[in-house]
Write a structure and sequence with these properties.
By secondary structure, the chain is α/β, with parallel strands linked by helices. The chain contains eleven helices and 28 strands. Helix content is 22%, strand content 31%. The model has no long low-confidence stretch (mean pLDDT 93).
């Protein structure tokens, strides 16, 4: 059985403002209707594949399970990383967990934010590498390069792949992201592939590789798994032990040192969506090379990407060439297409000035649904709150604010101190400062309400939780 290992903790700052630390690109429908995470999970499902094992962080744990359910897939284990330590500790944690449950199993490690249009072709490439992996090889997948790309690492083969048929080939070395001249030379040689960061190996082979090439990771990661705490079906890795693991990629820690490496070429289309230029390439374009999305209109434009991510916001481009324009409710990006990789500089600049748009998404996703701020003043805030069917917020109180709730869709079950009542559309309820309260959706359809907060402090960390069906602790998200 092949266990898909989905790495799901990155922030994707080069796709700001759609991708942010609080809600990164893997959870967004960047290409098509499904999110990148859902498409990745579906691509690695079906006959021969176990349920996906996901590594993510605490803030994303319920988003992961919600999106898997939305794709009709059951999650396997979900391991919660206390902090990001790069891919080597994450892969090792997955291997150590599988050693306890399926020690003879296979692991297919993949980022959860890549685009592979031909899922069947990718599964065929996996099948082509399976025998080598079962024989103890560490198999990686190399993408046929389409251009002299400087944003990817490369894999140098001992021979040209010729027809690029999926079969294990010998790897000579890993090559770091090159300069333009080197990239052009490698493309011309025909013996280089893009490094996709996707791996197939047995549990025992990768554990042996870690013991040989990165033994310093074994103790802290092993302790983090062994001392992990179950939490509503998740496994929280032990934070103290995890902090002792080096922050290092699996390429540096293991792959560049190992000798039992094979590469399977893949020619079925692939992108890591590492910038808005990549999104432009993967999006359907008109005869002038213009890609539009949402409420976007292009007039006399060429080779440009125009996106509106708000149904109430129209984006219009006139006479643009080689321009990226992406509009969110709270932020707009306009950039020359050749500077797409520099978007992360904008995020750094926004962080430096303290702008919440640098990291915070307009919709704040929670296990029960989501909310967004509609208006904010010195002593008031207006929110729209969406609660999934059957979901419930925690039983809580606030030190600094009172609240009015007006139900606009569905029915809310509302607790205020000792009183429990049903509040239907066009009805409202007042929550005094300090009152112990909870909101639930007892129905079969989403419940939406408008919340008006008033008080001296309106931060999300002004929450005292008494009960919570999602077992969250104190703090803004718990």
């Amino acid at each position: 059985m092949i266990h898909p290992i989905l790495l799901c903790g990155g922030s994707g700052t080069r796709l700001w403002p759609l991708s942010r630390k609080s809600y990164p690109k893997q959870f967004a429908p960047l290409i098509g209707e499904e999110t990148l995470f859902q498409a990745s999970a579906r691509r690695l499902s079906g006959e021969g594949f176990a349920n996906p094992l996901v590594l993510t962080n605490s803030d994303f744990r319920f988003i992961v399970t919600e999106q898997l359910a939305g794709a009709g897939l059951d999650p396997g284990a979900v391991l919660i990383e206390p902090e990001g330590r790069n891919t080597a500790p994450a892969v090792l944690a997955a291997a150590l967990w599988l050693e306890q449950t399926d020690p003879d199993g296979m692991m297919l490690v993949a980022p959860s934010d890549h685009v592979v249009p031909d899922a069947a072709a990718f599964r065929a490439a996996v099948a082509a590498g399976e025998a080598a992996a079962r024989a103890g090889q560490l198999v990686t997948f190399g993408i046929r390069p389409e251009r002299a790309e400087t944003g990817y690492g490369y894999l140098e083969l001992t021979e040209a792949p010729e027809d690029f048929a999926p079969r294990p080939l010998q790897l000579r070395r890993f090559v770091e992201k090159p300069d333009q001249a080197s990239a052009e030379a490698m493309l011309a040689s025909g013996q280089y592939l893009w490094n996709a960061g996707i791996f197939l190996f047995s549990v025992q082979a990768i554990l042996a590789a870690f013991r040989q090439h990165a033994p310093e990771l074994m103790a802290p990661v092993g302790q983090a798994v062994a001392q992990g705490q179950p939490d509503l079906g998740f496994l929280r890795l032990d934070p103290q032990a995890w902090a002792g693991a080096a922050d290092i990629s699996i390429d540096y820690a293991v792959m560049e040192k190992a000798e039992n490496l094979s590469v399977v070429p893949f020619d079925g289309g692939w992108s890591d969506l590492g910038g808005w230029d990549a999104v432009w390439r993967e999006t359907e374009r008109d005869a002038d090379g213009v890609a539009t999305s949402g409420n976007a209109t292009a007039i006399d434009c060429a080779d440009s990407l125009l996106r509106s991510e708000d149904e109430n916001l129209e984006v219009v481009g006139i006479g643009l060439k080689d321009v990226i324009a992406v509009a969110m409710p709270d932020a707009v990006l306009v950039a020359d297409a050749s500077r797409a990789q520099d978007v992360k500089q904008a995020v750094a600049a926004l962080k430096a000035k303290g702008a919440r748009q640098a990291t915070e998404f307009p919709k704040d996703h929670r296990p029960w649904g989501w909310f967004e701020s509609l208006a904010v003043g010195d002593r008031f805030q207006v929110k729209r709150i969406h609660v999934h069917p059957g979901a419930a917020l925690s039983l809580q109180s606030h030190h600094h604010r009172s609240e009015h709730w007006i139900v606009v869709e569905g029915t809310a079950k509302v607790t205020v101190d000792d009183k429990v009542q049903l509040v239907t559309e066009n009805q409202s309820v007042y929550i005094p400062l300090g009152a112990v309260h909870r909101m639930e959706n007892p129905g079969k359809v989403p419940m939406v309400l408008i919340e008006v907060q008033t008080g001296s402090y309106l931060g999300e960390d002004d929450i005292i939780r008494y009960e919570d069906v999602y077992a969250r602790g104190q703090g803004a998200k718990g």
